[in-house]
Amino acid sequence: MKWSTFSSVLAAVASISPAVATCPVADVSIVRHEGESIGSVHRVDNFDLYTSDPDECGLEQKYDTAVLYLTDVFGIQLPQNRLLADSFARAGYLTVAPDLFDGKPAPEDLNTPGFNLTEFLAKYGPQHADPIIEKTIKYLREELGVEKIATTGYCYGGKYALRFLAPGRGADLAFAAHPSLLEDVEIANVTGPVSIAAAETDSILPPARRAEIEALLKKTKKTYQVSLYSGTQHGFGVRANVSDPVQKFGKETAFLQAVRWFEAWSN
C-alpha cells in the first residue's frame, strides 16, 4: 500500500478493526506522544536494535524502503523515541533504531550531577557510531532484503543521517531534525535528497548555521528542503512539550515532513 497524503494514512488507520490491530487507532494522529510502544528489541551482532513493523499495526509494509531511525543522545531507551519509531511504522515503513550508546544513553536531564555531555559526545563519536550504523545497514540489506534506506536523525542522530548519505555509505535519502555537530563535509558529500527540520530557538543550529547548511546543500545539486518551525526549541522533533499546541504542531508536522519526503523521493 502507498499513501500519498496524510489524510489517506488516517483513513487506512481508521478502517482497521481494533480486534485485528495491536496499535491504538482512536487517536486522530498517527503520531503517538504517550502510551506503550509496540516495537521490540533484539540483538544484532553486538548491539541492540529496536524494530517497529507495520505488521504490528495491521498495516501493509512498504517493503522497498525502510526507515533507519538514528536517535538523539537519549537513545532507544527514551519512550518518545520508541513511540516516534512506531509512528513511522504506522505510516507503512519498517523502522529500525540501533542502540548507539551501549545501553547507557544520556540521562533525560542533561544537568544530572556527574554527567558530562562533552565527555559523552567524545566517547560516542563517529569512531563508535559508524560501525553500529554500518552493521544496521548491512542487516537491512542482507538479512531483511530492504531495497532502499531512508535515514531519519534527531539532534545527535541528525549528523549521521547525512553522514551515511555519502557515496558508498548505504543510505538513499535523509531527513534530520535539529541536527547537531553536522560538519560541512558531511553536507557536501550527500548523494541523495535531504530534508531538514529546524527549531526557531536552537543554539546548536542558529540562523547563521542554517544559512550555511542551505548554501552547502544548494551546491550539491541534490533535492533539498529546510523548514523552520516557530515557537520550537532544539529537540522539538522528539521531546516537544505537546501540552503547548504550537510545539505539538511542530513535532507532528516535522514527522509528516519526513514521511512526505520519503514518499516523494524513495520511488
UniProtKB/TrEMBL annotation:
Residue runs in coiled coils: none
Domain Dienelactone hydrolase residues, every copy: 65-264
Keywords: Signal
Pfam families in the record: DLH
GO molecular function annotation: hydrolase activity
Record keyword Zinc-finger present: no
Region forming the signal peptide: 1-21
Name the UniProt record assigns to this protein: Dienelactone hydrolase domain-containing protein
